[in-house]
Amino acid sequence: MDSKTVEQLAALMSSRICRVCVDRNPDGSCDSRAEGTCSLMSKLPLAAEAVLKVQSDRMEPYIESIRETVCGGCNLRYDDGTCDSRDTDRCMLNSYLPLVVEAIEEFFGRQRVPA
Ligand code: SF4
Ligand code: SF4
Question: How confident is the model at residue 111 (pLDDT cuts 50, 70, 90)?
Answer without folding.
Answer: low
